[in-house]
Amino acid sequence: MDLFKDIAGYGHEQVVFCHEPACGYFGIIAIHDTTLGPALGGTRFWQYDSTDAAITDALRLARGMTYKAAVAGLSLGGGKSVIIGDNKRTDREAIFRAHGRFVESLGGRYITAEDVGTSPADMEFVHYETNHVAGLTGLSGDPSPVTAHGVYVGIKATARAKWGSDVLTGKTVLVQGCGHVGQYLCSYLRAEDVKLIVSDVDEAKVKQVVAATGATAVAPDRIYDQQADIYAPCALGATINDDTLQRLKVAIVAGGANNQLAERRHGDALAAQGILYAPDFVINGGGLINVYGEIHGWTAERSKKKAGEIYDTLLRIYDLAAAEKIPSYLAADRLAEERLLKVGGMRPMWMPG
Ligand code: NAD
Questions:
Q1: For a substitution probing ligand 1, which of 200, 218, 244 has the most ligand atoms within 8 Å of its CB?
Q2: Do residue 228 and residue 100 come from a single domain?
Q3: Which are the contacts of 88, defined by CB distance < 8 A and separation ≥ 6?
Q4: b vs e for 109-132, b when ≥16 Cβ sit within 10 Å of the residue's Cβ?
């Protein structure tokens, strides 16, 4: 791979390669854009097939964070880090302290948090070395209630754009994944008398949601074939793909999962099929808002209120998509880029001190 070509293509500011021989730590910290504020993004611990794969993941994820923070209206930039290795290893202190030192070396330009393969306990080790870490035990805690609230209001906004009303009563919603986000989302929807059809590969979780909400359960692969109004992916990425696009019988796709489109062209296909898509990085921004709230000492209520703004943000995106005759996923990118340009283009000022 031609690293500088990739960095220039994605628009990254800085990529740091880190090594600590004592514990076999190999890490990459990618800072994509700090126009709006310090780059924030979690640390992923993963056994990549190659160093190239790890670099590509770090670059792609960091860029995604810039867009997520920009549309969420936060004073944050985008970054992400990856640690290459077996995330099940039990001797974690040195690995995460090493990581914390490199985060510290960036002087606050990058703030880390949890991601796939890391836990609040790992972040405590990072915290031994740096204050530029969030997602710590006893602070903002599990982000999924705030994420689910954002997804819920996002579904309502999408319903309003599609049907002229955000009342969901009587609608049928497919919730894929009865994990953290899925469970909270189901309770919000149930309270509005939505008919729920749910799936999960973990039967115990399905049973829990069925008992709590009266939802109908279907086998994991059958969820795409159900007649419904809305599909809310809350499990895996890439569930909007060539196969599922032929099977979905819904008018809206709006859920909490990251990277829902297998490829960008699937966002075009959704629009061509008349299915309104709530861009994932907009509707699931509540998790990031929760971490931001932790950094700034917000109450849980304030974070939830901020996540409620996802409603208006999505309406703006749908208006832009209609005005420009572009799919919603592109309109979301434009909204993020507009904010970056506006803030980035502010004239320089001499400041005292
Ligand atoms: P989770 O692990 O608690 O739940 C995911 C659930 O999906 C699990 O119960 C799992 O068994 C289930 N699942 C896996 N494969 C499945 C399949 N093929 N069919 C049906 N179910 C399947 O995770 P979560 O925290 O609820 O996050 C869900 C999604 O939302 C993820 O994509 C995550 O990246 C994204 N997300 C989460 C947050 C958050 O605050 N937790 C924030 C932003 C985005």
A1: 200
A2: no
A3: none
A4: bbbbbbbebbebebbbbbbebbeb
CA-proximal residue: ligand 1, atom 20 (nearest): 200
DSSP 43: E
Residues 164 and 246 in one domain: yes
The answer to whether residue 49 is domain-embedded is yes
**What distance in angstroms lies between residue 350's CA and the mean position of ligand 1's atoms?**
47
Tokens coding 126? 């990072």
Top mutation candidate among 198, 205, 236, 283 for ligand 1, by most atoms within 8 Å of CB? 236
- Helices 310-324, 51-72: crossing angle, 10 deg rounding: 100
d(CA 281, CA 199): 22
Catalytic residue among 68, 80, 205, 306: 80
Distance in Å, CA 338 to ligand 1 centroid:
30
Task: Return the ligand 1 atom nearest residue 220 CA.
Answer: 19
Atom of ligand 1 nearest to the CA of 116: 34
- Give the total number of structural domains in the chain: 2
Beta-bridged to residue 30, according to DSSP, are: 15, 80
With respect to residue 348, please indicate whether it lies within any of the assigned structural domains.
no
What CATH number should be reported for the domain holding residue 233?
A: 3.40.50.720
> Do 8 and 153 belong to one domain?
no
pLDDT tens for the chain, 353 residues: list them: 899 999 999 999 999 999 999 999 999 999 999 999 999 999 999 999 999 999 999 999 999 999 999 999 999 999 999 999 999 999 999 999 999 999 999 999 999 998 889 988 999 999 999 999 998 877 877 789 999 999 999 999 999 999 999 999 999 999 999 999 999 999 999 999 999 999 999 999 999 999 999 999 999 999 999 999 999 999 989 999 999 999 999 999 999 999 999 999 999 999 999 999 999 999 999 999 999 999 999 999 999 999 999 999 999 999 999 999 999 999 999 999 999 999 999 999 999 98
Distance CA 8, CA 173 (A): 41
104 and 206, same domain (yes or no):
no
Task: Record the pTM.
Answer: 0.94
In ligand 1, the atom with minimum distance to the C-alpha of 205 is: 9
Q: Is residue 284 situated within a structural domain? A: yes
Query: Does 80 participate in catalysis according to the annotation?
Result: yes
Q: Is residue 196 part of a domain?
A: yes
From ligand 1's centre to the CA of 179, what distance in Å?
Answer: 5
Range of the domain at 284: 144-338
What residue type is assigned to position 326 of the chain?
I
Tell me, yes or no, whether 14 and 41 share the same domain.
Answer: yes
CA of 4 to the centre of ligand 1 (A): 34
* Ligand 1 atom 12: residue of nearest CA: 177
Judge if 119 and 154 occupy the same domain: no
262 and 150 assigned to the same domain:
yes
Specify the CATH number for the domain of residue 83: 3.40.50.10860
